[in-house]
# Entry
Amino acid sequence: MSQGAAAADEDVVPDLPPLVRDADDELEGPAGDGDLELGALEVLEDAVEEDDALADFELGIDLGLGSETEAQDDAAEIQLDMSELLSRADEAETGADDDRSGPEQLDAAEGLSEPEESILQGDDGELHESLEDLVEGELPGIDADGEGDFEEADFGQLEFADEERPPEGPLAFEARRESEGDFSFATNVGMGVAALGRDLIFVRAGAAARAVVLPASGSALAALDDRVLVATVTGGLYFAHPDGRLIAVDGYGEQLASAVHRRSFAARLGASPSLITALLDSGALLSSEDGATTFRVHPTPRPVRALSPSGRWAADETRVFQVIGGQERALPEAATVAGAVPSLMEETADHVAVASAEAGVVLVGAGGSHAIAGTQGASALLCRDGLLWIGVGGSATQDAALLVLDLSTLRLTTALTLAGTRGETLTAVARSEQEGRLWLSTSAGLYSALPSPD
# Structure
């Protein structure tokens, strides 16, 4: 119909029926301010189609309507038929004969099987099986030999941190946190301790900590008389004093670059009155016998992995050896179990103690070696007066703890447990002469510990 004809017939046909357009029809109809344009019509059609789709979804039945015209013509009949069908279905199920036009409530899960009860949750909603048991019992191994054939998963290497701790012994300590922060090293200096975290701090019991700001993050620390030797990740080496002075070691950076031909830094330091040793992050070993004036490289067949606090002994993956003197001992099998490589060393009167988190502590001596059971997870060592103090990091279920080994009897006991340190690392143990106080550096702070009162 043209626009002129529509205007002429306006008085004759005052109300036009709604405009309906099939997909194959050309759009015809009156135009004007009160008429719908094509864009608005398409929006309305989309809305109608969405409403139909929602109705189909809610009923769970596709009505299969071919067009809106057919939907309008048959709407009443379809509604009646659907109500009758639903009413009959409800009567067949319940046996009731009432006037309801449909079920009171539709169950979308009708006909589906009931879900199985959770293997972790009972009827009361509580967990009845630990996650560890679930993983160990139900999770197959990663490597498959064939379709549906899996190797049994091995989680043994993850269990060392949760090894049962030894009982408490006659040496029991009580600890308190002296400073918050993440500390990687600690060593005794005079009547107090130096601890390396974000900065270097000197602490004495009952006194405020004194901080020494380093030019870069610290990477290693060693005691040397009444001062400490501290290295940084940028390859620097400094003497630091409790009064706050920081003195660079002249020429160390140039010697380091010349010796290893690459940018490197000290990951461990060892110091004694006659020897200063630096274990680099690359595994190279440097030493000085003139008070850090000059350094020389020690050629080694394999990268060095551990260094004693005195700087006199070192270890690689197969042996322990003297930095100066040439004496060496093969590492026993117990020290390299499951591919473990020693990362800690300490000297005792008759042995060299080596340790790793996987293998624990092993005493290596000229007459043989001793693996110390119950020390897996070891992360720090200190030997004083016939006792070997062993720091053990916290796990998901246990706090960090300090163990003590009597070297005369090889009896291992627990000296203290640091409450609230689950998942934290105990990085170093130091001892000052003042009151026999112990100092523990951890990723949760710096602690001091005194013997428990009788």
Observations:
- DSSP finds five helices and 30 strands in the chain.
- The longest helix spans residues 68-94.
- The two ends are 110 Å apart (CA to CA).
- Helices lie at 3-8, 38-59, 68-94, 131-138, 252-260.
